[in-house]
Amino acid sequence: MAKRRSETKEENRGKLIAAARKAFAEKGYSAASMDELTAEAGLTRGALYHNFGDKQGLLAAVVEQIDSEMASRAQEIGARTGSDWLGLLAEGAAYIEMALDPEVQRIVLLDGPAVLGDPSKWPSQNSCLQVTKRAVERLIAQDILKPLDAEVVARLLSGAALNAALWVAASENAQDVLPKAVEAFRSLATGLLSKPL
């Protein structure tokens, strides 16, 4: 039985994203050749254009995939704490720590903003923001955080974690910068507590 067109399209998208992810991680966005990555996927440039419009559209898809994986990983780490408050701190710290991962660093934190613009406007970042907002709402309801606007607090916390990760990724001494960034993030978040824990 022949594959349906939608299955073939989804399969081709997956192949192109996988090939691009490898090429962008190894060579960087600007040095990655569209001909090489489409050949690696066993497809043509036409398939790339059909599925993503252009190389930038392909980068956006790769960034969304990795950024979503980062968010899931951070949420898993936060869930292991067994506490909404400790989970929020752990998620932010985990996100910042992922800036040491070479693939995350190069694709999401260096090439992504340079090519796609402000990360706070990426769809994957909006998903993270909504998760953080729900956590903040729970913490406010539990009287753990000050009764502030949950969206504002979520935006500030998400922005702090993102900017700390961007700083770590761009730093010449990421290993030295990382603990400072995590400590500052935790200190900022602690300032939102309604009373000391």
Automatic annotation (TrEMBL):
InterPro entries: Homeodomain-like_sf, HTH-type_TetR-like_transc_reg, HTH_TetR, Rv0078-like_C
Gene3D superfamilies the record matches: Tetracycline Repressor, domain 2 (1.10.357.10)
Top-level taxon: Bacteria
Residue range(s) of DNA binding per entry: 33-52
Stored PROSITE patterns: HTH_TETR_2
Keyword NAD: no
Sample GO molecular function, one term: DNA-binding transcription factor activity
SUPFAM superfamilies the UniProt entry points to: Homeodomain-like (SSF46689)
Domain HTH tetR-type: 10-70
Alphabetical UniProt keywords: DNA-binding, Plasmid
DNA-binding among keywords: yes
PANTHER family for the chain: HTH-TYPE TRANSCRIPTIONAL REGULATOR RUTR, HTH-TYPE TRANSCRIPTIONAL REGULATOR UIDR
Protein name per UniProt: TetR family transcriptional regulatory protein
Lineage of the organism: Bacteria, Pseudomonadati, Pseudomonadota, Alphaproteobacteria, Hyphomicrobiales
